[in-house]
Amino acid sequence: MAEQVQEYLKVERQQPWREELRKAMKAKERTDITRVKMPEEDPHFRATNSNEVNLGLTKEMALQEARRCLDCANPTCITGCPVNINIPKFIKRIEQGDFLDAARVLKDTNTLPAVCGRVCPQEVQCEVNCFYVQKLGKEAVAIGHLERFAADYERDSGNISVPEVAEKNGAKVAVIGSGPSGLAVAGDLIKWGYDVTVFEALHEIGGVLKYGIPEFRLPNVIVDVEIDNLRRMGVKFETNFIVGKTAGIEELKSEGFEAFFIGSGAGLPNFMNIPGENYTGIFSSNEYLTRVNLMNASNDEYDTPVYSGNHVAVIGGGNTAMDSVRTAKRLGAEKAMIIYRRSLEEMPARVEEVKHAMEEGVEFLNLNNPLEYYADERGQVNRMKVQKMELGEPDSSGRRRPVPLEGSEYFIDVDTVIVAIGVSPNPIIPSSMPELEMSDWGTIKVNKETMESSVPGVFAGGDIVRGGATVILAMGDGRKAARGIDEYVKARKKK
Amino acid sequence: MADLTTRYMGLSLRNPLIAGSSGLTSSIDNIVELEKAGAGAVVLKSLFEEQIAIEANASLKKAENNDLIYTGKSEALDYIDLKIREETLSGYLGLIREAKQRTVIPVIASINCVTSSDWITFATEVEKAGADALELNIAIMHADHEIGSEEVEARYFEIVSKVLSTVKNIPVAVKISPYFTNLAHMVIKLSETGIKGIVMFNRFYSPDIDINTLTEKSTGTLSNPSEAANVLRWMTILAGRTGCDLAASTGIHDGTAMIKQLLAGASAVQVVSSIYRNGIEVISSMTGDLEKYMEKNRYNYIDQLKGKLKRDENSNVAAFERIQFMKYFSEIV
Prior knowledge:
The structure holds two protein chains of two kinds.
Chain A: H1 3-13, H2 16-24, H3 27-31, H4 43-46, H5 59-68, H6 76-79, H7 87-96, H8 99-109, H9 113-119, H10 131-136, H11 143-157, E1 172-176, H12 180-191, E2 195-199, H13 208-211, H14 220-233, E3 236-238, H15 249-254, E4 257-262, E5 268-269, E6 282-284, H16 285-295, E7 311-315, H17 319-330, E8 335-340, H18 351-359, E9 363-366, E10 368-375, E11 381-394, E12 400-404, E13 410-413, E14 416-419, E15 423-424, H19 428-432, E16 458-460, H20 463-466, H21 471-494
Parallel strand pairs in A: 1-2, 1-4, 2-3, 4-16, 6-14, 7-8, 7-14, 8-9
Antiparallel strand pairs in A: 5-15, 10-11, 11-12, 11-13
Helix pairs in contact in A: 5-7, 7-8, 7-11, 8-11, 9-11, 12-21, 16-17
Chain B: E1 6-8, E2 11-13, E3 17-19, H1 28-37, E4 41-43, E5 47-48, H2 49-64, H3 75-78, H4 80-102, E6 107-113, H5 119-129, E7 133-138, H6 149-166, E8 172-176, H7 183-191, E9 197-200, E10 207-210, E11 215-218, H8 228-238, E12 245-249, H9 255-264, E13 268-271, H10 273-278, H11 282-296, H12 302-305, H13 317-329
Parallel strand pairs in B: 3-4, 3-13, 4-6, 5-6, 6-7, 7-8, 8-9, 9-12, 12-13
Antiparallel strand pairs in B: 1-2, 10-11
Helix pairs in contact in B: 2-4, 4-5, 5-6, 8-9, 9-11
């Protein structure tokens, strides 16, 4: 952490209220408390509806968990947070019982605390750096659960704080894409007095938070509250506007926009390119989830219903695969399967998502890989050929490479297949700006300090730069880009 | 003037010299140059089964060294080998298409495989892209003492059978090594599977040791003219006994070496190391030597000299080899 930040954290920690709280309990008493368990809906019941699975902590639970935090002199948890939330401070506000102020602390650096509290992989970010994990070999303080608690408490109380906004400085900034990076940029720039317009290609604001993450993991209403907060701060939103098609960057420049942030995400699905992948009933996870999450496709009365199969195979082992298979289960699939070519240990999905999927009756065919799809006379997929795999030598990431087992091919009856093997960056904007430098992965190359691209005044962040990452990393990029844009506009004005 | 045209795997070649699979045949510009230099056909650089894994690993490493690319739990990188495979294979198919557009000589695609898994799908793509033939370079160097020779041989037949079940419209050749307990039996059995050619032989990495640094090193990647002798031995033994054409490969560095293989029974020869060593002009020099030899000896057609010195089909090869050994080694043994 930068010296300045460390100094700030030190001063904050020396506040009398923090010192008083630290003295209120012995460290031993704190470390003896067992980590809270997130209450969940019953698996049998929840697999039949789209209610949120995690129910959130009660006040008592939150207070007890907050007591576990030792308010360390060197808060290593913060180093794991891409947006540098002052984690001990917000947790201590919870311990103090001032839940609204805890939410305010979160919002100082995080535009979407209720979202991050639900979907961030805290176990590999802030929580893995917690003193409990690093030094005591115990379970980390449940930072994510507490973050969600504070944000939900504020929302439910009706006392949602709107961060202060500086006087308008007259500079217009266009944010392309309303996903987590775009919302983070907008949140910071609006606070600093910029005139911010967010352009969204779809009819709903929220990007991947809305189209990609199902209701049972992140209810749309939670995202809407956070977006509404930005609206109240003055951010303007234009939906059904595809920058690069509806209008280009140059046209927007002529409308007075001085700087641009591209946060158009990674919406281009990857396929395996195996025979039969074009048959009816085979979807990309993007299409499947977007139809269900954003277009109400599970409701027969809507114009674009999705085919809800009885035997559904989802290819892949990431969070998107888990979201897809659990969605299929909720749409009534008798048999919902994960087909993944490595073992459970190598799965990129969060442990919690895998656990939830297993509890809900999802079958896991690990060390299996599709080879070919077959269809009936109407072209509807009805069978797939699968090959068993074994694990070979580790690849450069240390994970063992899947190797086909010769002669192990067999068939599975399926009527729906969802391919969830990752996404590539959205190509629309890069293809409309040939001067934009791109990487081998189809991502926009940026200066990692300022997030400025090879085109002056054009910044980028999130999945279009990282190629399919996490919500919080995208938000971290957004915040960094906001500082970059601020410096760029100020320097321009000085000239 | 002697007619150098010949037929190999049912393909018509303007002469029997084929530019073998190597870096020389990996780009369209080189392929065009090889045609201009007089090659009768080209075998494209082999796509190695392991190449995809190696490239995927390199790509993963590159991503890990880039702070901005998310590698931690990335779903896309979890399947990066598929993407690399797709890019590599589509690049290869593009090379076939372009080679067919810009040249008239036969273009033979090549796959270097050790298993019979998803390469089979790719073999059909090669056919669709317009390759005139497919050469399967089955390079298995077995060092696993727990695998019996029968199992090793069975894998060859499994690969061939799977490829032939999907590649129906173009001829398939198999390039093999000489390392079999009974090479003659293996070659004849393979030639009866429906393949149209057998290429003898592929070369493996050739190890050496640096005694000063105590490290392993390579003796070099190019062949030597002395290596042609073993090919010649098996060509004379097997020509006329197989159900498909034979092509000679390894150690054929000049016109004389090419003529010897033709006399022994080869339908064509594959040349690589000599082009690397002597330049692309060696092709016209070798075909020129062949033409002169044919004119001098009054051969009008390749078929008149092809197999002229092959071993009699009824000869006892083992007894002959022992007599030759005694004859030539008696003075020094």
